[in-house]
Amino acid sequence: MFGVTLDYLLKSEGPDENNKENGYYVSRETIDGFLSHKRHLAKNIAIGVGLVISSDIFGCFSGYMQLLRPLYWGTMAIGIAVLVWTFFSTEALQRNQFKYLAV
Q1: Buried b (16+ CB within 10 A) or exposed e, 47-74
Q2: How close are the terminal C-alpha atoms of the chain, in Å?
Q3: What pLDDT is stored for residue 63 in this prediction?
Q4: Cα 76 to chain center, whole Å?
């Protein structure tokens, strides 16, 4: 009639008090979103660092320095921009959405 079991009525403690664990409850969807976010973050960092490192390829050809200097600085600037953008977008997302998961 009340929607409870006989164990609940006869025992002095509730059914959830035995199984209570410390910590946060997180749904599967939240964990999947957090892990997807971390994978995306790692990919963006790898792209930024890869661009910064690969810009040195253009600096190795000293005979063609006038021609390759814009490519060197352009690749370096894009790599740094990707890293800065990734940092600021990650900070904003972690503050809002994943503040309890990002430990």
Answers
A1: ebeebbeebeebeeeeeeeeebeeebee
A2: 45
A3: 72
A4: 24
